[in-house]
Amino acid sequence: MRIGEAAAAAGMTTKTLRFYEDSGLLPAAKRSCNGYRDYTEDSVARLEFIRRGRAAGLALTKIREILGLRDAGEAPCAHVQDLLSNQLADLDHQIAELIALRSVVAGLHANAAAGTDASCDPGRMCSYL
């Protein structure tokens, strides 16, 4: 199938597909006699895997590791499980930081909402922060 068909089937743009191919995440497609890239169902499956990995927040370097294991004939599931465990811990940490930040911003906002424009001194930085 041509690049537009493969990209649509994988749920991405042709630009993204080319980027993954140029980055080595997707093996270079064979060219048809007229020079068009010709992608297979295996290519689409690989692209879908890359898209799912990115949707899970995995960096392309981690996805490359997974694909490398598979390409070497190894089952990558244990490695994926470890990566997902680490990703989950990172997300939990980020959520905790965001909750703390939200509390700080909510307090600042409450103080600002209680203030008046008259309390703002043009010669100073804003007292709300």
Please state how the strands of the largest beta sheet are arranged side by side: 1-2
Q: Could you report the average pLDDT, rounded to the nearest whole number?
A: 94
How many structural domains can be distinguished in the coordinates?
Answer: 2
**Chain oligomer state:** single chain
**CATH classification class of the largest domain:** Mainly Alpha
CATH architecture grouping of the largest domain: Orthogonal Bundle
Largest sheet: 2 strands, antiparallel
Return residue spans where pLDDT drops below 50 for at least 5 consecutive residues: none
Q: Please state the CA-atom Rg, rounded to the nearest Å.
A: 24 Å
User: What order do the helices and strands follow?
Assistant: HHEEHHH
Task: Name the overall outline.
Answer: elongated
The CATH topology of the largest domain corresponds to Multidrug-efflux Transporter Regulator, Chain: A, Domain 2
Structure class: mainly alpha
Strand content: under 5%
Strand segment tally: 2
SS summary, helix count = 5
As a percent range, the share of helical residues equals 55-70%
End-to-end gap: 57 Å
